[in-house]
Design brief:
single chain; alpha+beta; OB fold (Dihydrolipoamide Acetyltransferase, E2P); 5-stranded mixed barrel; 5 strands; elongated; NA-bd_OB-fold; RNA-binding protein S1
Length: about 130
């Protein structure tokens, strides 16, 4: 079995993670189909597309610097005429922006500003030596 870049081969999904699916081939070698290589559309939940134990056809994209196989299912799927693009967010209403500023100011005062610049509460202002 040739696992050279461009080869199309069938393998069995041995493990599914949040970032991709591991596929094992007849020769015992395993490769990864990264979540971005599952489908042309955005994949929110990989479990909606592949399942452990399922046989899948994949295209070998190549090997990474460690020699691990990079695989794709998406490369074998017909590309849709138009890929849905995320809708651009336009300028928000002044009321929304005022509420957001108020929320952010309140969060900083409670110590949940997340990144400095805000007031420090009494628990963080004194250091023990």
């Amino acid at each position: 079995m040739q696992l050279d870049p461009g080869a199309v081969v069938e393998g069995r999904v041995t493990r599914v993670t949040d970032f991709g699916a591991f596929v094992q081939f007849e020769n015992g070698e395993t490769g990864l189909v990264h979540i971005s290589q599952i489908a042309h559309s955005f994949v929110r939940n990989i479990h909606d597309h592949v399942r452990e134990g399922e046989n899948v056809e994949v295209k070998v994209l190549g090997r990474d610097e460690r020699g691990r196989l990079d695989l794709s299912i998406k490369e074998l799927l017909e590309e849709p005429e138009e890929i849905p693009r995320p809708r651009a967010i336009g300028r928000q209403s002044p009321q929304f922006e005022a509420k957001l500023r108020s929320f952010m100011r309140d969060a900083k005062e409670r110590g949940g500003g997340g990144g400095g610049g805000g007031k420090k509460g009494p628990a963080t202002s004194k250091r023990k030596k």
